Structures are given as structure tokens and as C-alpha cells.
Amino acid sequence: MWCRWLLRPPLSPGPRSPFRAQSALAQLKHVLEGELEGIRGAGTWKSERVITSKQGPHIHVEGSRGDILNFCANNYLGLSSHPEVIRAGLDALEKYGAGLSSVRFICGTQNIHKDLEEKIARFHQREEAILYASCFDANAGIFEALLTPEDAVLSDELNHASIIDGIRLCKANKYRYKHMDMQDLESKLQDAQKYRLRLVATDGAFSMDGDIAPLKEICNLSQKYKAIVFIDECHATGFLGPNGRGTDELLGVMDQVAVINSTLGKALGGAAGGYTTGPKALIDLLRQRSRPYLFSNSLPPAVVGCASRALDLLMESNAIAQSMAAKTTRFRSKMAAAGFTISGNNHPICPVMLGDARLASLMADDMLKKGIYVIGFSYPVVPKGKARIRVQISAVHSEEDIDRCVETFIEVGRKHGALP
């Protein structure tokens, strides 16, 4: 019988699919090329400019001549190239090696990792802290580990993509409240009373608009409706508040915010890494269940050394952090006087609102030609119709640097019709 089966004619291939003549790879390329052409056609293509120097207020950019003023780095305190931070990284590299080749719970925890976690907790005045490869990983790892289908999470609609993605991974009941709208948040907190835990998640400072979450009001509502407050402090740690501890210090609610996620890759040395700090029981749970922590290599010793020294400098003196305010005010006031619309609330993120994606891209290109490095942001990074050039002030910018940036904006803005 098996012989007769072998002698049967082959089955008919059936109707030809319109894609059957193409290989799978050719079909994929066709689809991707269409997607890429759509991005180019919309004027939202993002090119990567190549820097050939250290990060700092003055840099060299491939294809550009001479010294370029950098106004788009997250190097808020200027510590990315601080000599003491660099020396600490080199010392850690020489003493502890290039890396651990392991996750933390196998053989990837050195004393410098534990020391940095203790230092972070002390800086934020929290019980404990846990390190991640990035704050994106910290946000990806907390909600799934903490929240269950019995719980609810309430998220600001303009939260960072990493918060949004982290919440998507968890099985909690999800609410999205209108941006900084306390009436809408209260309505959703009322509806969420049927769940075991309620967690309100917000950026402390919103990176695209430079506005600061109304933490006092959020904390008051959270107390009223027995909710936990979580904040992402990536664009606040190191320079907001009297001692640079962030928006909770700035707004006087350090004792009411339960959980903080933040980064080592911006103000605190600028290399890489993120963390969660909060109650000891939460940190213990994350060490057992947080997948990005459990399945990612430990932070390299050089990164740990740089971040640790950056925190030392910050805790030794608040002078660097305090220098930000006057420089931010100078830029914002001069740009507003020239006729530009600057979004945000006196944050060193200063979005120059232009609306049109092509205009933002063209102006940023012309700014670079005149020696000012800024980047245009457009959809999908920001909503459609809200394209802007995001300027970021650093403590190491001089007044002359800021004035030159403003003057160049005025010149380029007039050229492209953004100013009369």
C-alpha cells in the first residue's frame, strides 16, 4: 500500500498567489522600501550625524568644518567629559575589567555595583535601588513584575515610549489619562477603586515638551484614592530641585512618591545604565522577577565608575545643578522676545515649536551649516502638526554660546519664514 502511495502523481500547487513568484526576502524588501519611502515623503526621515570628538558643548561633526556648538545633548551637567568622571571610568576599567560576561545573579555582581546602588538610594533618600542596562529596561521590567490582573495602572497620555511599552507588557487593567489633566485622572482613579492596587505612572519632566508633571496634585489624588505614585526622572535627575534630586524634590513631595525610575545616561555621566529606587520589598521583588534585570549582562565597570563619580560630584555641591536655571531663563527669554514659541515650564529642554516637519528639518540642517547642532523632531516622536526643534541647555554652555544660538535661530528663522 505504501508503494501505491509513492506512485501517486504530485498534488496540484493550486492557484498562483500574486506573491508566489517572489522569494520571501524579495517580498520583505518590497514592503520595507515602501515603508521607508513613506517616511522620506513625509519629511520625517531621521539621519544620524557622526560626531568625531568627545561629547560636550563644543564638538566636531563629520562633514562640517571647525567647532560646532552642541545644543541637543542630554548632557545637562556637562559631566560626560568631566576629567574626574573620565578618570573614575578608567580606574574602574583597569581594576575590574571590561565587563562581567554574566547576568547579576550568576557571577555578574561586583562590589562597585552594590556601592552604586547604595549611593543612588541615598541620593534619592529611598530604601534601596537596583541597576539596569538602561532606564528603558527599568521601565520594561517594573510593571510586569509588580502588577497583576487584579491591579490597575493609570498613565499620562504623553509618557515616554519606554513607560508605554513597559505597561503593555503587564496584565494590569490599563487607564490612560489626558496629559496633566487632574480631573480626568481623578475620574479614572474613581473607576479603578475596584482593583487591588492602583499605580499612577508619569514622567516627572516630559522630554518632548519640557513641561513638569503636577506632582503635588497627583500625590494628593493618590492619597485620596489610595494609589501608588511612580515617576520617571530621566530628564530631571541631577538638576531639578535644590540639590538636583528631581521633580519630587523640586515640588516638595519626596515623601509621597513611592517609586522612581531614572537614568545614568543623561546628567549622571552620560554613559549608559538606568535604575529603580524605592521600597526594599519592591527592589527585592525586581531582583527575583524583573526580566530585563535577570536576563541582561551587568553594567560594565567603566560605566559604573563614571556614574559613581558623577553622583559624588553632585552630592558634594549643588553649584553645577543651580547654574542651569539662569542659563535656561536666558535662552527662553531671548527666543520669546525674538518671536519664537517655546514650549515647557522653565526646563532646560526648550522646544522651539514650528509645526511643520519639513520646516523643522530644513531649519535644523541650516543651523548646523552655521555651526549650531540642533535636531528637528516630528511624527512619530511627537504628534502630527507639532514638529519642533528641541534645544537643550547644559550647565557648561557659556552666555556667549547661548547668545550665538539665539542669533542663529533668528537668522535661519527669517530665511525660512518662521519669523517675520
Automatic annotation (TrEMBL):
Q: Which SUPFAM superfamilies match?
A: PLP-dependent transferases (SSF53383)
Q: Which cofactor does it need?
A: pyridoxal 5'-phosphate
Q: Per the similarity annotation, which family is this?
A: Belongs to the class-II pyridoxal-phosphate-dependent aminotransferase family.
UniProt gene name: GCAT
Protein name (database record): 2-amino-3-ketobutyrate coenzyme A ligase, mitochondrial
Q: Name one GO molecular function term.
A: glycine C-acetyltransferase activity
The Aminotransferase class I/classII large domain, residue ranges: 67-408
The alphabetized UniProt keywords are: Acyltransferase, Ligase, Pyridoxal phosphate, Transferase, Transit peptide
Query: What are its GO biological-process terms?
Result: L-threonine catabolic process
Broadest EC class assigned to this enzyme: transferase
Which reactions does this protein catalyse?
A: glycine + acetyl-CoA = (2S)-2-amino-3-oxobutanoate + CoA
Question: What are the record's GO terms for cellular component?
Answer: mitochondrion
Question: NCBIfam families, alphabetically?
Answer: 2am3keto_CoA, PRK06939.1
